[in-house]
Amino acid sequence: MTKIIISGGGTGGHVFPAIAIANAIRAKLPDAGILFIGARGKLEMEKVPAAGYRIEGLTIAGFQRRFSLKNLSFPFKLLGSMIRARKLVADFRPDVVIGVGGYASGPVLRIAVAMKIPAVIQAQNSYPGITNRMLGGQVQKICVAYEGMEKYFPEEKLVLTGNPIRQDLKGLKDRTSEGLKDRRNEGLKEFGLTDDKAIILVIGGSLGAGTINQSVLNCIKTGKTGRDIQWLWQCGKYYYENLNNELEAAGLTDRRSNVHLIAFIDRIDLAYSVADMVISRAGALAISELCAAGKPVILIPSPNVAEDHQTKNAMALVEKKAAILVRDNEVSGKLCESIVVLLADKALQEVLKQNILSMAVLDAAEKITSEALGLIQTGKGM
User: How does pLDDT run across 146-194, given as a tens digit for each residue?
Assistant: First the structure.
């Protein structure tokens, strides 16, 4: 039986591509043994078992770039994680290891390399993390979503695959009028929305985004975007309680308010299907999913990422007239106006839809699977 370890996580941008890869492996090799290794307390420890896969957790945590007392415990957590990772890998004896980025990916890939087990990195962003850059010279394949990554990795190891998207979103490729209508009707029912007002989907990432949340709240409370809008708003679990309290205090929590606040949207495919417009961060997974959804989008890149890579992600779309950019430091003043302008311009909406849809890659998980399984067949890494 073929055995594969998939390691990494921390946010949806790592977790959901990992699950998509596992699903592609299972589709190709139904009897394959798949083990996830993640970080305890992170999103993967909930989402991976829900997807039907076994996961083991490491105590690893990130190193804070600015001074923090948490850094004092980092060496001990790293050492403990390396020891546990070695035991998990040795006991499971995988034929190949796939790292998707995030805290747990580093220790597991290091152990795999040391044990001469074939290893693959799946690098989602236009600017790779430090762990991926350090390991790039030691693994056998590096699957990337952007061109020009030879600046960071050995060129002969690079494979342009795109980023895997969640399985449900692949159904969005049915662009027939009947297919679109059926999905939209299902989505309206799922979220308790109506078909007589524009629907704006807000996604600040799996954990939410404070700047976006406050700006959307301002648009709603001031009425600057008008009253004929329904808001389907994924705010993140850390922000949900406070935002709900603020909406309640303003009398905006009943059905007549048209505000549907949700901590996390599980059926993101249905959310995209009902959206007339999307407001989103510009993480790698978000960009890949937005391309598949084919909806007009306002991108607000997070400034709190290495080398401002979310802005680079966003500009790849903006330069092809596939998205509108609002910078994070301008969002409080520009978001409401940008929404009003885009809603009123049907021609612009259509241009954005067609251009972003043309950039969709739907088979990234299958490509990564082929690369990983190909290493087993050729015996590389041994």
Answer: 888 999 999 999 999 999 998 788 777 666 677 778 889 999 999 999 9
CB 122 within 8 A of CB 136: no
SS3 per residue for 67-84: CCHHHHHHHHHHHHHHHH
Please check whether residue 311 is in contact with residue 299, taking contact to mean a CB–CB distance below 8 angstroms.
no
Distance between CA atoms of 287 and 323, rounded to whole angstroms?
10
Residue whose tokens read 């795109």: 162
pTM metric for this prediction:
0.84
DSSP result, 195-223: SSSEEEEEE--TT--HHHHHHHHHHHHHT
The CA-to-CA distance between both ends of the chain, in Å, stands at: 18
Q: Residue 199, CB half-sphere, CA atoms under 13 Å: how many?
A: 23
| Residue ranges with strand state E in the chain | 3-7, 33-39, 54-58, 96-99, 119-123, 141-144, 158-160, 198-203, 229-234, 259-262, 277-280, 297-299, 324-325
Which one, of 79, 105, 83, 89, lies nearest residue 15 by Cα?
105
Domains and CATH numbers, the chain: 3-165+362-378 (3.40.50.2000), 167-357 (3.40.50.2000)
Contacts of 223 (CB under 8 A, 6+ apart): none
Quote the tokens at residue 132: 């991926």
Residue-wise pLDDT for 270-286, tens only, equals: 999 999 999 999 988 89
